[in-house]
Amino acid sequence: MAKTDVLSLAILGMLAEQPLHGYQIRKRLASELGPFRALSYGSLYPCLKRMLTADLIAADEAEGEAVRAGSSKRSRIAYRLTESGHQRLADELASSTASAWDDEAFDVRFSLFGKTDSATRLRILEGRRTRLAERLEQVGEGLARQRDRHDAYTAELQRHGLERVEREVEWLDKLIENERSAPRGTGNHTASAGDNN
Domain check: are 54 and 18 in the same one? Predict the structure, then answer.
């Protein structure tokens, strides 16, 4: 999934809850989703424009609301999901392709687990865990090969990266165990596992 597609998915998920203005979308992305902390309006508004063109969202001018920009006034626009947007979100939430557990997409997909069925959540968690286990093996092998070639700071950076991946694998193991033990048809039970920080 391309970064733009990940951003679109995050926006679809937020607008499924309620219509939002552009600055509200940016604020929520910054506060709720780590990968988008540095999201600029220069990235957000072109994405919203593409989503409008694709009929995934609609823009409504808020009646009676105006924002003063210098000496001019402009209407505040609220974005909402269209029927096509609701369907695209449902399709995305039902999918569990490899892109769902990539670094770029996993946080967004995880933030939408409350709207995702248990079987799909489990496939995504297991896929992410497999991906990270492969990374652990590669990093560990590389660290062992390079141990004598690196200075102490480079070795420490590699060790830190290895520990971070190990912590995420442990976190995923807990989430997977909780997901497997949760009664089918219930809501999101992954939150009880805590977080990986």
Answer: yes
